[in-house]
Amino acid sequence: MTVQEQIIDFSAGDLSSDAQRAMYEYWIEARGRASLPPKTALDPVEFPRDALPLLAVVEPVGDDDFRVRITGTGIRAATGRDLTGTKVSQIEGAHNARERMIKCLENVSAYFVKGSADWAQKPNKYFTALVLPFGTTQHVERILLVFNFSHHAPAAGTQRSGASRLDRS
Q1: Neighbour tally for 114: CB within 10 Å
Q2: Cα distance between residue 83 and residue 75, in whole Å
Q3: More confident residue, 166 or 15
Q4: Which long-range contacts (CB under 8 A, 24 or more apart) does 85-91 make?
Q5: Looking at 2-6, 92-96, 145-149, which range is the least confident one?
Q6: Residue 93: helix, strand or coil by DSSP?
Q7: pLDDT confidence bin for 157, thresholds 50/70/90
Q8: Which pTM does this prediction carry?
Q9: For residues 145 and 46, what is the distance between their CA atoms, to the nearest angstrom?
Q10: Which residues contact 86 (CB under 8 A, 6 or more apart)?
């Protein structure tokens, strides 16, 4: 059974790695007073260095799908997969992720997710991911994800308002 928890109302202290916290701070600074930063703020030269191997960038394609544009080397090492160029709908075990990204487009908001990484080719993998949209309030152009992987399930968080749990078998 796949258990994943999506947290919409979170702070930097809720994140599970220094890379996620650094990228979240970058995202907040890059957006300024806007709801989200523009796509032009997606500049790897400016990104926190320790986040680079754990980044993935996805692009909306069509109404209900996304293409993975970049997969960091740390993600490939942890999962045994290079998903660059793959549509999220074609990744076995990523149905929940696709549903959450659709909601990210609709709500134009960041979120934090944790749970089992059934989409990884390596057994007993768990993950957390910080999910950050880039674009305008009318059009999210890219979604950046910062992962953290473990062989142990992430600690259960306090269920805050705005949090939702997705249970799938």
Answers
A1: 23
A2: 9
A3: 15
A4: 87/61, 88/58, 89/64, 89/65, 91/119
A5: 2-6
A6: coil
A7: low
A8: 0.85
A9: 16
A10: 67, 68
Tokens found for residue 77: 């090492």
Average pLDDT over residues 130-135: 96
Q: Tokens in use for 166?
A: 């997705």
| Assigned token pair, 133 | 């949209």
Task: Please give the structure tokens belonging to residue 160.
Answer: 């805050």
Q: From CA 84, how far away is CA 46, in angstroms rounded?
A: 21
Q: Are 29 and 21 in contact (CB under 8 A)?
A: no
At residue 5, the 3 state secondary structure works out as: strand
Q: Can you tell me the distance from the alpha carbon of 68 to that of 86, in angstroms, rounded to the nearest whole number? A: 6
Q: Which of 60, 73, 122, 133 is nearest to 93 (CA)?
A: 122
Give the residues across from 116 on adjacent strands.
Answer: 126
How many whole angstroms separate alpha carbon 49 and alpha carbon 110? 21
Give the pair of three-digit tokens for residue 2: 């796949």
Determine the length of the chain.
169
CA distances (Å), 133 to each of 43, 98, 144, in order? 14, 14, 6
The residue whose two tokens read 């059009």 is 139
Average pLDDT, the chain: 85
